[in-house]
Amino acid sequence: MKNLDDILNLITGNIAPDRKKEVFSIIKEDSENEELYRKAKTTWALMSSAQKMPDYEIEKSYKRLNARISAKHGFQKILSTYVRYAAAVVLLVSFSAIVFYLGRQDNHNLVSELKYTSVVADKGQISKVILPDSSIVWINSGTTLTYDNNFSQNNRNLSLKGQAFFEVRKNKHLPLIVTSGDLQVKVLGTRFDVKAYPDDDEIKVTLESGKVELLNAKDKSFAYRMIPGQMASYDLQSSKVKKKTVVTQNYSGWKTGNLIFIDTPMAEVIKSLKRKFDIEIEVGNTSVYRSVFNANFKNESMKEILDYIRFSCHVNYTIVPEKNSIKIKLY
84: domain range? Predict the structure, then answer.
């Protein structure tokens, strides 16, 4: 490719829509360009996942690569070095560890066949990823985010199972749509949180800034608009929505490692602890579920949190050692 800066601008999202199609066409015509694009995209994802620098510094460092390019082979050599470096950083930063599962995907990402990328945050982890359109997503533990290989070209469709916080790059011609079950969250550019774990009875959408519209894939008459500072709860059984005003930071603090509970039913508290600590919790007395919990934790251990629950909710616990783990019994 004559202008290698086009590849960097394409991946970081700093390219005009009409120019984007032209660059993709050029890449598809040359296998070397396609390989170059793949390596550059991997480097960008790994560097952004490391969370060592603010996002604008990451982009500035990434674009600095262009200054070191004198020939295509030199660029590929530099990229290979950066991929190894960035991968090592990601492995060292366990908090933002990220696992990519490329379903049926080979190295040729630009062919017409529809393929999917899933970004997974395992239990006990919180991941950060920059999407192909430069939108930023934090993914809570036990969460999977999926998109296809046409993302940012002719769609910005995401499928979510779990919880994620989105900083969406504005594109008035191509809205971003997050789908969880039948519920769809449609946005142009905004900051919002979606909590949609498969074992929850409702999906919660919390809007920090901008505007979002809630839609239903099976009901065209279903439409709810939200304003900043609102939380919408979508009941999976009745398909009804309830909105209320909240302090949004209380529902997005998890992306920096906080555990925040505000009049939270104990059943939901238990689910959150199981996801964060990847631990089994058994309830031996149904009276445990009658408690509600209020607390804000940052770096406390599992035992410290359990002691606080015991003190404030009068719920006792026992730690039972097992072969390769432990189990918590509440009663």
Answer: 1-92
